[in-house]
Design a protein that fits this description.
This protein has 90 residues and is mostly helical. It is globular, with a radius of gyration of 14 Å.
Length: 90
C-alpha cells in the first residue's frame, strides 16, 4: 500500500503526514538540540532531490515512489537517533 499524502482524522501508519508529524513531535523533546541535526539531514535529502529533478525533470513522476521511500527511510533513521520514553517506532 502506498503512503497517503494528507492527514487522516486519526493516526494512520500509511500517511506521510502522520509519519512526519511523529518526527516533529519527537524533536519537540529538545528542539534546541535536535533541530539542527534534523535540518542538516533534510537539507541533504532535499539537495539530492533537487539534483535528481534538475538532471531530468521528466523523471520526477516516475521516481516519486522511490523518493517517498527514501523520505520514509530518512525519517526512520532520524527517529532512531532521538531517545524516546515511548515504545519503539515504526
Amino acid at each position: 500500500m502506498r503512503p497517503r499524502l494528507s492527514p487522516a482524522s486519526t493516526t494512520d501508519k500509511h500517511s506521510l503526514w502522520w509519519a512526519m508529524h511523529e518526527l516533529a513531535e519527537a524533536v519537540q523533546q529538545d528542539p534546541i538540540k535536535l533541530t539542527p541535526a534534523i535540518q542538516e539531514e533534510w537539507a541533504r535529502w532535499e539537495a539530492q532531490l533537487i539534483r535528481e529533478s534538475g538532471a531530468d525533470p521528466m523523471d520526477a513522476v516516475s521516481l516519486l515512489e522511490q523518493r517517498t521511500q527514501r523520505l520514509l527511510e530518512t525519517r526512520k533513521h532520524l527517529l532512531a537517533t532521538i531517545p524516546t520514553p515511548t515504545a519503539a517506532r515504526v
